Amino acid sequence: MKTLILDRPVIAVTGSAGKTTTKEMIAAILRTRWPILQSKGNMNFINHTRRYAQQVLPRHRALVLEYGMSRPGHIRRHCAIIQPNISVITNIGTAHIGWFGGDPRKLAMAKAELVRYMKPTGTLVINADDENSRWVFQQPFRGRFRGRIITVGIHQPADYVGKNVRYAPGGMRFTVRLNGTDEPFYIPSYGEHQVYNALAAIAVAHHLGFGARHIRAGLRGYLKPRRRLTVYRFAQGLTIIDDSFSANPNAVKAAIDVLSHVRQGTKVAVLGSMLSLGNYARRAHQEVGRYTVRQKVDFLYTYGQLGRIIRDAAVAAGMPATRARHCADMDTLLARLRRHLQPNTTILIKASHAIRLHRLADSLVAEARRRRPAPARR
Fold this sequence. Notes:
The chain is α/β, with parallel strands linked by helices. The protein is built from twelve helices and 17 strands. It has helices at residues 19-30, 46-53, 74-81, 104-111, 113-117, 192-207, 212-220, 249-262, 281-294, 307-316, 330-338, 357-371; strands at 10-14, 36-38, 62-66, 86-89, 123-127, 148-153, 160-161, 163-168, 171-178, 181-187, 230-233, 238-243, 266-272, 299-303, 324-327, 345-350, 376-377. The longest helix has 16 residues, at 192-207.
């Protein structure tokens, strides 16, 4: 199949976390002015990219694509089907790191294929705050890539810096300097990690000539992926956070941060096994267990074979054993959690998708709906 090279913006997004959300944010902004073609949901495999190549029409002013990978060479194959001229690497984290011997440098080399095989004079957007992303710049793409590098960040100097980042009702508020003016923005999702996704979207859109008004409108109305920090609010302060779509150590810690900020009261974390971590798995689950203690989680429930490591690490770090329980089956876990469907309580549910904690989330939401007035889904 011949590589599709287009004379319009072709934006490819990859990274260990935030790919789908960043893609949706970019697409929502561009749609305020242009007809576009975008990846559907999290359909980001190579066969999906082949399908998108057949769907391009003359009326599409831009393409917004998500390039997924789990092995070296996958990104290269995406680029061989549709060559991007604008690339976004959200971060180099721990998703799929087990396929790379637990070495973030090897993972960065695989992600850097996006830079190596994109248009040599294109534009790269990268996270200046992400420590592992520095490895991307040490990969052998410099001789080929002669384009522009745009950086985003919150804590480090960058081309687009998020300032005054704060939690707000239903989401996050922050400002970014555009054309010499500090512009306010709002996203209807919780967490500093979501602000990074928005910053990447802002950088791409601004680079393409979009102003603050259209960027604001797009970010406010972007399509939020299902089961990614979906917040259900009920009467008397009962909140359920369904983040059961996927999990890796960085993403779990980010979700725990949201649990710590979203509402005052009792905080309950339900954490399952994180998969595809290879020889990093034990250390990763221990880190998450200790993090629940640092973030003052009140009750911890774990599930799955590796989930027990989270519980044991939390107890070793000081969480009372009576407040940290490992459940071997879903029925026992659901029975224990029903006791926490109480006023002023927030329950977070997070695990790799294959652990199937989405069934638990659905059961708890249904139970809460029977007990309380219908919630507002955010």
